[in-house]
Design a protein that fits this description.
By secondary structure, the protein is α+β, with helices and mostly antiparallel strands. It has helices at 4-7, 15-24, 37-48, and strands at residues 8-11, 26-31, 52-60, 64-67, 71-74, 78-85. The chain has one domain: 2-Layer Sandwich (Alpha-Beta Plaits).
Length: 94
């Protein structure tokens, strides 16, 4: 669980995340729910070779979903990490 590839699941490329990237050099990642801020910081610095200034996290609760009329279910809970890079640092997403 301490491997960087195990902690970081994916980068989120939503409209809000793109605006944060452009204005504040803050990138949004979907991470494992048990990941801590120091682990996330170390994983980003290891994977992308960039200096991280701050990490903020939030737990996202799953939503109730209905399939047709018979079955109901719930999507799984997950964790989101907002990673602010040091001045002058960027991650190339292309």
């Amino acid at each position: 669980m301490n491997e960087p590839h195990d902690l970081i699941e994916t980068i989120l490329l939503t409209e809000k995340a793109t605006r944060l990237t452009e204005s504040q050099s803050t990138y949004v990642f979907r991470v494992r729910p048990r990941a801590t801020k120091p682990q996330i910081k170390k994983a980003i610095e290891t994977l992308f070779k960039k200096k991280v200034a701050a990490v903020n996290t939030t737990n996202v609760r799953g939503k109730w979903r209905r399939a047709r009329t018979a079955s109901e279910g719930r999507t799984s809970d997950w964790k989101k990490a907002y990673v602010k890079l040091a001045d002058g640092e960027t991650i190339d997403l292309a």
